[in-house]
Design a protein that fits this description.
By secondary structure, the protein is of the alpha/beta class. It folds into two domains: 112 residues, Periplasmic binding protein-like II (D-Maltodextrin-Binding Protein, domain 2, 3-Layer(aba) Sandwich), CATH 3.40.190.10; 84 residues, 3-Layer(aba) Sandwich (D-Maltodextrin-Binding Protein, domain 2). Helices cover 30% and strands 31% of the residues. The chain has a six-stranded mixed β-sheet with strand order 2-3-1-4-11-5. Strands 8-7-9-6-10 form a five-stranded mixed β-sheet. Strand 7, helix 4 and strand 8 form a beta-alpha-beta unit. The longest helix has 12 residues. The two termini are 19 Å apart. Bound molecules: adenosine-5'-triphosphate and 1-O-pyrophosphono-5-O-phosphono-alpha-D-ribofuranose. 1-O-pyrophosphono-5-O-phosphono-alpha-D-ribofuranose binds next to strand 9 and helix 6. The site of 1-O-pyrophosphono-5-O-phosphono-alpha-D-ribofuranose (PRP) has 12 residues, from strand 9 and helix 6.
Length: 200
């Protein structure tokens, strides 16, 4: 059996559909159940917060994990990244009010859940500024004046538009990745690669 940690929001919905389309069946399933096993006992899924997926894989609780590249870029984990599922596509962007030029401001403040990538953006552009960590509703930050800019996920762009903000720069492109525990990838290589080719 392979143990799989999956980010429990958007990503889990897509993966659950892929699994059922690929022939996996789950008799025991309910929205609030955090561990489910398929009827043939070949996979066991644990649903966790996306930031926790690599932690479960690194610590051998799960053999593989399914998580966005945005999360993997925030911290270093001792895992293998083994596949790009090419779903969950979105961009990590610098956004703010229309026509604001970050390179012309003295006191740059960026609000973000993605503090590592926001700091890397400042550094790679030779900019000095403050990164303020927020955990959600990041688009609110410029509206209430906590920051002038945000670094956040943009998919359709409708959240930015509804809040009168715009993409100023695309920092990174994002998609859903499969990561593997380094030992499991050796000991369960064929089950893991078979599983990936089934859902891919
Ligand atoms: N519009 C979007 N907003 C946020 N994440 C998106 C979007 N489109 C694709 N993604 C991808 O989906 C992942 C988030 O999905 P996840 O399954 O963790 O659940 P969530 O509940 O939507 O997120 P969170 O736990 O951050 O609230 C992101 O890390 C990113 O890779
Ligand atoms: O470009 P869009 O299609 O509008 O999608 C982007 C929005 O979706 C995500 O928020 P989410 O709904 O996960 O809520 P959050 O603010 O709590 O992170 C993300 O943080 C943006 O706010």
């Amino acid at each position: 059996m392979i143990k799989i940690a999956i980010a429990k929001g958007r990503i889990s919905k897509v993966i659950y559909e892929l699994l059922t389309e690929s022939g996996y069946t789950f008799t025991e399933n309910s929205k609030r159940k955090l561990i489910i096993t398929d009827d043939s006992n070949s996979i066991s899924i644990i649903y966790v917060k996306s930031e926790d997926v690599p932690i479960y894989v690194e610590n051998s609780i799960a053999d593989i994990g399914i998580v966005g590249k945005d999360i993997l870029r925030e911290k270093e984990y001792d895992v293998f990244e083994v596949e790009d599922l090419k779903t969950g596509k979105c961009d990590l962007c610098l956004a703010g009010y229309k026509n604001t030029n970050i390179r012309k401001l003295d006191n740059i403040r960026i609000a973000s859940k993605y503090t590592t990538q926001a700091k890397e953006f400042l550094k790679s552009n030779n900019l000095i500024g403050k990164v303020i960590k927020l955990n959600g509703s990041v688009e609110l930050a410029p509206l209430v004046g906590i920051s002038d800019f945000i670094v956040d996920i943009v998919e359709t762009g409708s959240t930015l538009k509804e809040n009168n903000l715009e993409v100023l720069e695309v920092i990174n492109t994002v998609s859903t990745r499969v990561i593997a525990n380094k030992v499991s990838y050796k000991t369960k290589f064929s089950s893991i690669t078979n599983f990936i080719s089934t859902i891919n």
